[in-house]
């Protein structure tokens, strides 16, 4: 099973809009969701069940549902995304064939690092290849290197 791990934008939900300061999930990190609807916020919640192979995802929940999931289960983790990706039929498969995407295995250890923001993303990408290790650890703006 593969996973898409989005890059953090360096902000928390409450920093995007003051209205989120009143919610317990206001401290959730925000990630790049994709090039479509970049102003649209998508909330995801997940938890691991009895083992590292048992994973449950709630994707596209509203803030009230995210809050209730957190109240019901202390192991729930929350992440927010600005924008999303979308593909026409067969497009994603074609992009995978030409290595437009970097694939990594789903790992409980990586998800445990999610609060470390960019470190989680770097860890997942760095393990794919030496080339990806260099890319993940390069400065966002090479001119300031």
Order of strands, main sheet, comes to 1-2-5-3-4
Strand count, sense and barrel status of the largest sheet are: 5 strands, mixed
Q: Segments where pLDDT lies below 50 for 5+ residues?
A: none
Discrete helix count: 6
Order of helices and strands: EHEEEHEHHHH
The backbone outline, from C-alpha atoms, is: globular
The percentage helix is 25-40%
Strand content: 25-35%
What is the arithmetic mean of pLDDT? 80
Outline the structure in words:
The structure is a single chain. This protein is an alpha+beta fold and 145 residues long. The protein has a single domain (8-144), classed as VC0467-like (3-Layer(aba) Sandwich). 30% of the residues lie in helices and 26% in strands. It is built from six helices and five strands, in the order βαβββαβαααα. The chain has helices at 13-16, 63-72, 91-97, 108-112, 118-126, 130-137, and strands at residues 8-12, 29-32, 36-48, 55-61, 77-84. Strands 1-2-5-3-4 form a five-stranded mixed sheet. A hairpin with a 6-residue loop joins β3 (36-48) and β4 (55-61). The longest helix has 10 residues, at 63-72. The chain is globular, with a radius of gyration of 16 Å. It starts with 7 loop residues before the first strand and ends in an 8-residue tail after the last helix. The model has no long low-confidence stretch (mean pLDDT 80).
């Amino acid at each position: 099973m593969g996973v898409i791990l989005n890059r953090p934008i360096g902000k928390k939900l409450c920093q995007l809009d003051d209205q989120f300061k009143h919610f317990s999930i206001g401290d959730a990190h925000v990630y790049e969701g994709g090039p479509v609807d970049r102003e649209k916020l998508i909330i995801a919640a997940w938890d691991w069940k009895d083992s590292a192979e048992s994973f449950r995802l709630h994707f596209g929940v509203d803030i009230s549902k995210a809050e209730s999931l957190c109240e019901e289960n202390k192991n729930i983790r929350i992440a927010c995304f600005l924008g999303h990706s979308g593909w026409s039929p067969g497009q994603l498969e074609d992009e995978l064939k030409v290595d437009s995407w970097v694939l990594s295995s789903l790992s409980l250890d990586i998800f445990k690092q999610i609060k470390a923001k960019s470190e989680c993303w770097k860890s997942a990408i760095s393990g794919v290849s030496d080339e990806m290790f260099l890319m993940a650890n390069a400065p966002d703006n090479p001119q300031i290197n």
